Amino acid sequence: MILAEKTINVKQQNLVLTNQRALFWQEAETLVLSDLHLGKTAHLRKNGIALPTEIIDNDLKRLSGLIFHFQPKKMIVVGDFVHAGKNSEFKLFAKWKSQFSNLKIILIKGNHDRISKEKLIDIGVTEVYEIYEEEHFIFSHEKVESQEKFVISGHLHPGIRMKTPVGRFVKFPCYIVSDFLLILPAFSSFTGLDTNNHPKNSSYYFFTKDEIYTI
């Protein structure tokens, strides 16, 4: 895994954006991500769509790499931790979490997180909220309005569309940052990209497997 980083300062706090679809909040020793969509590929396989099991395996390996690198005390998942009902990928996640028994996982529920709190705790989630506030930040799956605190959200699966020198268009996942809001990319590598529904007057931090760039 090649890890590229770019640090931004928000509310006098250092947020390290990475090209691995998650950020690290330095002062709180916290890894922050959104839209893992655990169980999505297993759900689609169950419904007759042939997908490789390596998708979730690779996502969890990437998550392990971030944890080994940053050594966070906790992880905040800003919604859509799961995708559908309980399936084989839940056991896979529970086994993965056993490697990091001291890692606290805070989940802010998203529109896909419809299973019970008890089942979430069974596989390693520590606390579950509708909206979570800490220090100068509000964590919410979908963006909310706040005049006092900076909002960190997910849900959108943001991406940008760029024209290459040969006239073709390519899409890249990105972080969107404004004066009051940061929208996280989807952590899952198996998601589409929304290149249209973006807040105005924002900066973009888009990334490849090797680097992270600013426009």
TrEMBL record:
InterPro entries: Calcineurin-like_PHP, Metallo-depent_PP-like, PdeM-like, Pesterase_MJ0037-like. Residues 31-126 form the Calcineurin-like phosphoesterase domain. Keywords: Endonuclease, Hydrolase, Ligase, Nuclease. One of its GO terms (molecular function) is hydrolase activity. Signal peptide: none annotated. Its EC number is 3.1.-.-. It is an enzyme of class 3 (hydrolase). This is Ligase-associated DNA damage response endonuclease PdeM. It comes from Empedobacter falsenii. The gene is pdeM.
